[in-house]
Design brief:
Shape: elongated
Helix content: 55-70%
Radius of gyration: 19 Å
InterPro entries: GntR_C, TF_FadR/GntR_C, Tscrpt_reg_HTH_GntR, WH-like_DNA-bd_sf, WH_DNA-bd_sf
CATH architecture of the largest domain: Up-down Bundle
Protein name: FadR family transcriptional regulator
GO molecular function: DNA binding; DNA-binding transcription factor activity
Number of domains: 2
CATH superfamily of the largest domain: GntR ligand-binding domain-like
Structural class: mainly alpha
CATH topology of the largest domain: Four Helix Bundle (Hemerythrin (Met), subunit A)
Order of helices and strands: HHHHEEHHHHHHH
Keywords: DNA-binding, Transcription, Transcription regulation
CATH class of the largest domain: Mainly Alpha
Domain HTH gntR-type: 20-90
Number of strands: 2
Distance between the termini: 21 Å
Largest sheet: 2 strands, antiparallel
Length: 241
């Protein structure tokens, strides 16, 4: 596809993303183009308008994704008549990929993601059925801690929020199972970058889950948690591909 010609093969593998996790799923798919080598180093990605159309996202969302990839040293933007977004040669372990591959080899990633979703959606639904005394205050405090967390402390506060939901479910077995799967998940998450756009989106989803739990709307709590888990899964699959 040198010089932007012949872009049909790369974009033909793209699919429209779901509305709930537009940023994360867009990032997953563009990363897939790069990881599969469908756009070789030195070649130009399809035009923004074309990519956005195939993915079914706004150009604003697409540009946020391309900015992340540029920050990670995977692409660069060039101006002018022959400008565009060009793929850069992959630097050895620049994004923690060697360590990530080592950790991935030690776990069944898809099983971990599925088990996490089952536990998380179950916990959210159980919490929405009714919280024990003091549970609502604990949940609000955990949510507020994530909202006020510094970037370097965000993942710890995020973990604590999810663990709080698991503990408030009223099932010690569920809470223990979630603690185990979350430890495995964090091993993988620690190898990929913290993306501000994703964290902002996660915060919106966290707030929606907590609101549904406090409103005792179990169906909404489960659905929003399922969507939240899907966003994390999309990010991981994008960086693991």
């Amino acid at each position: 596809m040198a010089g932007g010609e012949g872009s049909a093969p790369p974009v033909s593998v793209l699919r429209p993303v779901r509305a709930g996790n537009g940023f994360e799923e867009t990032l997953e798919q563009v990363l897939q183009l790069l990881r599969l080598g469908l756009v070789p180093p030195g070649d130009r990605l399809p035009a923004e308008r074309e990519l956005a159309q195939h993915l079914g996202v706004s150009r604003v969302t697409l540009r946020e994704v391309l900015k992340v990839l540029q920050d990670q040293g995977m692409v660069e933007s060039r101006r002018g008549r022959y400008g565009g977004t060009f793929v850069l040669p992959r630097a050895a372990a620049a994004d923690g990929s060697d360590e990530l591959r080592r950790r991935v080899a030690a776990v069944d990633v898809e099983d971990t993601l599925r088990f996490r979703e089952v536990l998380e959606t179950g916990a959210a639904g159980l919490c929405a059925d009714g919280l024990a005394d003091g549970g609502a205050a604990r949940l609000r405090a955990a949510l507020e801690a994530t909202q006020g967390a510094r970037l370097e402390d965000y993942r710890r506060q995020d973990t604590l929020l999810h663990l709080t939901l698991a503990e408030l479910s009223g099932s010690p077995s569920l809470a223990a199972g979630y603690a185990s799967v979350r430890a495995t998940l964090n091993e993988l998450l620690d190898c990929i970058p913290l993306l501000v756009r994703n964290l902002e989106h996660s915060q919106q989803q966290h707030a929606a889950v907590v609101e549904a739990v406090l409103d005792r709307d179990a169906e909404a709590a489960r659905e929003m948690m399922r969507e939240h888990c899907a966003g994390t899964a999309a990010l991981l699959r994008g960086f693991l591909a």
